[in-house]
User: Fold this.
Amino acid sequence: MKVVVCVKQIPDPAVPGQLDPETGTLRRDDKLILDESDSYGVEMALQLVEAAGGGEVSLVSMAPRAETSGLRTALAMGADAAVLISDDALAGSDALGTAKALGAAIGGLDADLVLAGTESSDGYTGTVPEMVAGVLGLPSVTFAKHIEIADGIAKVQRQTEAGYDQVECALPVVVSVTAGVVEPRYPSFKGIMAAKKKPVDHKDLAGLGLEASAVGADGSRQETVSVTDAPEREAGEIVTDEGDAHNNIVEFLTELKVI
Assistant:
C-alpha cells in the first residue's frame, strides 16, 4: 500500500515577529518546522502501512527556498521519501493555488491513500484537503478520528459533534485527520541520521506542468487587506463564596443571555 501525506512546513510559532505588516503574510525566511497538525497524518500513515504488512509512506510539501527542515522531521519519524515543491512563482498562493500544486505532485505518485491534517496551524482555512481531492478527482472524507484499510476499502470514523459517522469508501481516497487521532512518535537518533539520506524529489512549476498564472499572487482569489492584534484578555471577576455565589453565576449567565 502506498500512502501519501500532505505536510506543511511553517514558521516556528514560538518565534515572535513572524508577521510582515506590509504584506499581511507570514515571513518564511528563517528555518521552517513541521506543522504539528500534520504530524498526526504522518503517524497515521506509518501505522496503516505497518498494519498492512508493508508499503511506502511518501510526503508532499510546498515551501520556499527549497526548505526541507520540516520534511526531514517527518522522514525521521519513518516516512520513506518526499516531494518538495518550491518555486518563487508560488509565493502568495491561496488555498486553491496550493491545492493545485499539491495535487499535481500527488498525481504522479500513484497513491492508494492521501492523508492530510484537517487544517494548518498558520492558515486555518481547513479547505486544502478537499480542494486537493477535487483537483485529483477523488472522493474526500474529512475529520477522521480512526481509519482502517481492508480489501481496497477505507473504513473511517468521521468525527461529529454528536459522536462519529462510520464512512466506507473505495481506494484511492483523500482523508483529513483530526489532531489527537494518534500519538505521533518522536524521531529517534537513528531515524534522524537515516532521514539525511532519504530521497527528496524537488519540483518546480515546470516540473509539475503548471502555469505561473494559475498559482501564486497572480492566481490568488483572496487578498489580505488588514491585520490587527487580537484583543488582550481582560482579568476575570473573583467571587468569594459566602453561601450565595450561585446568585452571581445566575446573574452572569443572564447577562450573557445564556439563560
In short: The mean pLDDT is 91. Helices lie at 36-51, 69-77, 95-106, 128-136, 189-195, 205-208, 216-219, 245-255. Residues 36-51 form the longest helix (16 residues). The CA atoms of residues 143 and 160 lie 8 Å apart.
